[in-house]
């Protein structure tokens, strides 16, 4: 019998396991695949997460980014050096996620990979978790099984809308290892982000509105890479869904919490998901620690805390996304292309600014350009 069973060893589940184990609780961390595992992802991580942990991430940081280039359909470029901010980390998810898992193990969590959860049932005041490798019991359960996971549905939560994302991994020598690239306009209802690694580029695309076809995203990522003159003979293409923050929903139920993309935490404007997965994993661990200490309100408070610390900002990101993806060309000219706007976007991605700090001003500026006569 475990204090907590955590399903899914991505950033959300590994973080929750780490903090619960550090508090001295018995934790079982389950993943259906063998670790370390590949996850299609740009691998851009806000360095702000370092403040939450007491170990060093340096061994899994491939490079850091302090310069970005924005383009509109690969033309009309603007390059910006990021000032006064901690450079953004570029990671490979197999190594980054596995470091978190190994730290959780060192703290005392028990890992069982290659173990798929196939059913859950709440009996005699505990969770009975059926897997391909036996049945386990736990007082609490964290569903951190990602956007494609089934636990949220099994726990009775409303299904979340999924959006298309994809990555094209291109091994090559990287000319500017500290520069990231964002291209708008080529991919309808979304954008392309190209992040350097030590041995190549990860070119990602995400569609954050409407229904794009998978072949469209594949074609746009391939075109983009060809325009950059990259050799695609060794490249690897993968599609994966994204689950964007839609509205405030409870993330707790009887003795169970949702964390990470199972809770639909991705930023609806930019698609960032690693930092909020880690944040929800951390807060889920705190809530279950308090619940194990007989705090009856701890799980309900978790839903409130995530709404306050992440959801409120995501509502604003969603408002900006509504305008951005409807009038992308105008927004590129008025919003993205201004060097100060690029600094702001980078500061948001690095966790040094919140949408609440900038949305009102940005909306006023955009309305002035989009609605003739607005604002005089
Ligand atoms: C194309 C693309 C690019 C992206 N780029 C970025 C980026 O640059 N920066 C950023 O911040 N975010 C990015 N994201 C988002 C980010 O990848 C996700 O938000 C993040 O991985 C979510 O982490 P998680 O811990 O919730 O779930 P995941 O990382 O998806 O992990 C879930 C785990 O659960 C396991 N699992 C599932 N079902 C079961 C089961 N039944 N039993 C046992 N185990 C199970 C899976 O095997 C998996 O290991 C990107 C996403 C996409 C699709």
Automatic annotation (TrEMBL):
Instruction: Identify the Pfam families for this entry.
Output: FAD_binding_3
List the molecular function annotations (GO) for this entry.
FAD binding; oxidoreductase activity, acting on the CH-CH group of donors, NAD or NADP as acceptor
**Name this protein carries in UniProt:** Geranylgeranyl reductase
Q: Show the InterPro entries listed in the entry.
A: FAD-bd, FAD/NAD-bd_sf, Geranylgeranyl_Rdtase_fam, Geranylgeranyl_reductase
What are the residue boundaries of the FAD-binding domain, all occurrences included? 3-278
